[in-house]
Structure formats: C-alpha cells, structure tokens
Amino acid sequence: MAKTITDVVCPFCGTLCDDLEVGVSDDGKKIIDVYNACAIGAEKFLHSQASDRVTRPRMKQEDGSWKEVSYDEAVEYTATTLAAARKPLMYGWSSTNCEAQAIGTEIGEIVGAVMDNTATVCHGTTLIAVQDVGVPSCTLGEILNRADRIVFWGCNPAHAHPRHMSRYSIFPRGFFTGKGAKGRRMIVVDPRVTDTAKTADMHLQIEQGRDYELLTALRVAFKGEWLPDTVAGIPKKTIYEVADLMKSGRFGIIFFGMGVTQSLSKNHNIDQAICVTRDLNEYTKWNIMPMRGHYNVTGSGEVWGWLHGFPFALDLSRGFARYNPGDTTSNDLLVRDEVDAVFVIGSDPGAHFPNSSVKKIWDLPSICVDPHLTPTTAVCKLHVPVAFVGVETGGCAYRMDNVPIECRKVVDPPEGMMTDLEFLERVTARVRELKGA
Amino acid sequence: MPKIKLNLITGRTIQQGVSMEGGKEKPAYTAACGIIELDPEDFKKLGVYRNTNVRVTSEYGSVVVKAVDATQGPHPGLGWIPMGPWANMVVNPNTYSTGMPTFKGTPVEVEGAKGEPVWDSLTLVTKACRGEL
Ligand code: SF4
C-alpha cells in the first residue's frame, strides 16, 4: 500500500500548482505516482527517481573526462574560485527556493559578484517596462473569481503553463464567474495558430515582431479614432471589434509572454501593453500579468528586491548595488568578456543562452549546481548535483502573481546528497574565511 | 539544391518541457527540440521530404535539425525551433542594451542536409564550444 501526500506544490512553471497529490511507497523513499499535475510537472517528480541520476559532484579533467569528487572538494573549488575572481557572474536562481537565493546573495555581497536570474532571457524586459510605467495587476485568484475578458498576448499556456487555463484563467467557475468558460471571452494574439489560439474566441494572427504597432492601434481604437486599413497584418475592422470587446467586460486581464519580451522593441512592447491596460481602466477594470516561466524566478526578483532594490542584473562588484540592463546583464557581460568566473544554480544557460555566450562560460572557471545533466553541466568545470527543491526538500517560492507558496518535501534525496541551501551555506562559510569577511 | 529564407522564432512546447525534465542528455530531448517546424508551403519550396535533416543558417551560426510539419500552423514564411541549444546556435544574440537576446525574429536560410547528423544537446554544445562544428 502506498501513502498519498496531498497539497503538494509543483516546482516547474510559474503557475506553481498547489493541489498535486503524490503517491509514495510505505517507507517514504520512492515516488510511485503523481496526480493532478500536467505532463511536465509529473515528469519532474518522476525523473527525480531516475536510476542513472548523478549523485556526487564531478570535476572535468584535462582530457574532457569527468572525475567524481567529494562535496568537500566541491565546496573548496567553488569558494576559492569565487573568492579569487575579480568580478564573478552568479547566474540562475530561478529553480531554487528563496532561502537559497538569500544565502547566495550573501556570497555575492562578500565576493563582489554580478547576480542575475533567468528573467534576463525571459521577463527582464518586462521588469524594465514596469519600472518605466508601473503595473496594474492582481492575483490569479481574482482572475478565477472575476475575469470575463482574457487576452493571451505572445504566450501559449497550452504548452508552457499547461494548467493555467483550467485552474485560473479560462475554464474554472468562480464567485462572479459561475458560467466558467461560457461567461468569459478569450482573445489570443500570436503569429502562429497555437493550441491556445485554437481554443480562443478571437485569434489575431499578427505579423511577427509587430506587437508595438498593434498595441498602439488598440489605444487609438479605444478612442474611436482613425486607423489605416491594416496594422501588423490585422484588418482595422477586427481591431475596432477587439477594442469594443475589451471595453465591454467587467474585469479583464492581459497575460503576455516571450512573444513580446523577446521580439524587437522588447521593453517598449510591454510599455505599450501596460498603457493599453491603463487606458482600459477609463472604461472598466483591467489588469496585466507576465506569464513567468520558472517556478521561482519571481521569488529571486522579490529576494533581490528586498535585499538590494533591483529584481535582476544586480551588480555588487563595487561593494554597493548597481543595476543597468544591457550592461550588468549576463549575456552582455559574457560576450564582452567582463566576468572572470561563472557560477550557475537552478538554471541552464548552456541550453538557453545564445551560443556566443555559452562559449565564454566554457573558457572560464565555472561551477554548475543542478540536479540534472544539462548542456550547462557539460560546459562547466565543476558539476554539483543537489536535491530537487519541491520534491526532496521544501522552501518558499513565488507564483507568477507574486503570491508566496511554501513547497513541500515528498521524499528524501539519495543518500549523502546535499540540498542547494546546505551547499551554499558551506560555500558562504568558506568564502568568509578566505575573504576575512 | 534550393534554399529558402525564413523568419525564425523559438519558444516552449509541451514536448520540450516534458523531455527536458526527463533528461537533456536523452534522445527524447533531441526529438523534441532538435527540429524545425515548417509550413507545408515552405516544404514545397524547399523540396525536401518531411522528417529529413536540414541545415539552418543565420548571420550568427548554423545548425542541423530535422524538418517536420508545423503543428501549430499555418505560418508560411515562419520557421519554429523549440527553445534549446539547437535554436541557440542561430538566434540573434544582440540585446540592444536591454539584456535580452533577440530570440524571436532571426532571418535564416534553410537547405537540405542529407547525411548530416542532428547531435544530442550535450554533444552539440560541447562541439560548438570546441569549435568542432
Ligand atoms: S501547470 Fe505548471 S505548475 Fe501546474 S502542474 Fe503543470 S508544470 Fe506544474
């Protein structure tokens, strides 16, 4: 007979579902099944059980082969590398808990590192825009209970946040949304006919990279002013129609994703999207929310926000906090050879940075703390496998709407394995000794 | 051999998410992300069979991936490589002072690449770093 653990939190995407049930063996050692999760969430729990998992740190040798080392040696290499560097980059922080983020920042303070999280390749431009023009937002619970106009702009939750629509935004019945999906109108803006677009009431198949134009056109349409025949490939009749549909709701929300943050114009796209939201508040209640990717990228922004005032691209190398996207951001630093060591935790830049940046990591003293084998572990000099946060250890994480949720531990990590937090605490202690801090 | 010009975008797919959590060193990850989704119209112009390898080249790099039918189309003129190391061989790394590389909207050329392999993610990145590609 297996035990079932309820109210488990899924540590994969920013939806941070907190209704999972996990069946574990009687001795509490093995995960047998995962209920309520989407395919990605379930795989995350089940893969933690893989028999071929790396359970001890490994150091790359001259000939490219790997040699197993002890956690003590891994702590020593990490601490000495960071202490010796003039300006190390400490990147990632999105697939780990806030406790680890906080202690990691302490290391950054001691060694004078640049701290950056995955927002740098995800919603960093959103954060810039929010600093420009503010953000009228709400929680996912309010959307569940109130929203009757939902826009997905440049995002595809059917693939990237699979339970978002069923838990919060489209299908569930809430306090003022008793008819569920029937009472809501859904608009998707995307250059592809995505699986999300296929379920929408209206799909605007925008020309890729023309979001700024279309957002501006909507602002014109709200006021009933003149528009050219087509904007960004969308006929003006449709734009006026969408504008009316948006104005006619009681409570609306724009969710947006990489389609706007990573296309040219970047933060300016988001500026416009926020201004659209602001304009709509002249007529009815509207909100806007980024579809955050990693389950705790929001948390790392919060932690750095309260410690140093900036949510990413945090440069501590001068002994005080500086922030200047384009200058203190990971890809710019790497490509310009401005850092001399790289520490990665809870992220995979080897797979998700442009190759020109990855090559630079390859050339530098580098450490990757990650439970998986990844392209980053392949390019770094030291790989430190750790327990899975949210599976083998708990900790705090922030959902995409900035709601903190405490993750649960469901099984023990393989014997002798460290957690992120334990490893970072050891490194902090050693770095303090080395720096006399 | 014909070459076609496309506008390349990348992003998540559910297969990318599942296979990534299953292990990026495994063949399932290559099957999910070492691909380019093309519109049937573009397949016609390119003159290659579905599920054969093609070379995608941009100003910034080049990579061999398997050409498959668009699953979320039609989108003629638009190529789609799921986010991952294959896409990142060719995307525009310029951040234009925002910190954000331009992952979406890279002009690329696609041509048949019969006989050339699609490397798994760890091999691909290692080879690229060693300058062996
Ligand atoms: S939607 Fe996101 S948080 Fe929810 S189960 Fe799927 S991956 Fe996990």
What topology emerges from the helices and strands here?
The complex is a heterodimer of chains A (437) and B (133).
Chain A: E1 3-8, E2 20-24, E3 31-35, H1 39-47, E4 58-60, E5 66-68, H2 71-84, E6 88-92, H3 98-111, E7 114-117, H4 124-133, H5 140-146, E8 149-153, H6 157-160, H7 164-169, E9 185-189, H8 195-198, E10 202-204, H9 211-222, E11 230-231, E12 234-235, H10 236-247, E13 251-256, H11 258-261, H12 267-280, E14 285-290, H13 297-308, E15 314-315, E16 322-323, H14 330-335, E17 341-345, H15 349-352, H16 355-363, E18 366-369, H17 375-379, E19 382-384, E20 395-398, E21 404-407, H18 420-435
Parallel strand pairs in A: 6-7, 6-17, 8-9, 8-13, 9-10, 13-14, 17-18, 18-19
Antiparallel strand pairs in A: 1-2, 2-3, 4-5, 4-19, 7-15, 11-12, 15-16, 20-21
Helix pairs in contact in A: 2-18, 3-13, 3-18, 4-12, 9-10, 9-12
Chain B: E1 3-11, H1 14-22, H2 27-33, E2 35-38, H3 40-46, E3 52-58, E4 61-69, E5 78-82, E6 106-112, H4 121-130
Parallel strand pairs in B: 1-5, 2-4
Antiparallel strand pairs in B: 1-6, 3-4, 3-6
The complex binds iron/sulfur cluster.
